[in-house]
Design goal:
single chain; mainly alpha; Rossmann fold; 3 strands; about 45% helix; about 10% strand; globular
């Protein structure tokens, strides 16, 4: 899982990524959190919850790590594009449909999930998407991705 992004507005809530990881762990998956070296201190706590935080110091290390993954869940980010390009089934979390249409990872099997899609304006979607997107919705989208990939 990649819980960060280049800008704060593109990031789903950190607490929900952790909750997602715990739920996936409890379902028998081995969730791992991939973050930039300067972000590691903010995510060390996931190790205490039984989830891995690999130390990936360069993009080639990230690519090698991704290549061995079974699935990828992350925000709208370059790492999602890399996972998709490596043919890793990818679930990408986006704030707005228009952004997702233009920027979704689309080199392999993937799914996009929009938070707050029913809100009337782009400004509201950008502001509230991360609060309206539940862990349950992400789990449901992940299950659909898995079913479509199998």
């Amino acid at each position: 899982m990649h819980p960060t992004a280049s800008t704060v507005d593109k990031r789903w809530l950190a607490s929900r990524f952790v909750q997602l990881g715990v739920e996936l762990r409890d379902q028998g998956f081995s969730p791992q959190f991939v973050v930039a070296p300067h972000e590691r201190a903010d995510w060390k706590h996931v190790e205490r919850l039984g989830m891995a935080l690999p130390d990936l110091s360069s993009l080639d290390h990230v690519a090698a790590w991704l290549f061995e993954c079974g699935w990828f869940i992350g925000n709208d980010s370059g790492i999602g594009h890399l996972a998709s390009n490596l043919q890793i089934p990818t679930l990408s979390l986006f704030m707005r449909r228009g952004i997702a249409r233009t920027w979704r990872p689309d080199w392999g099997t993937g799914r996009v999930l929009i938070g707050g899609a029913y809100l009337p304006t782009g400004r509201l979607k950008e502001r509230y998407w991360k609060y309206l997107l539940s862990v349950g919705k992400v789990i449901q989208a992940f299950e659909q991705l898995r079913a479509n990939f199998s």
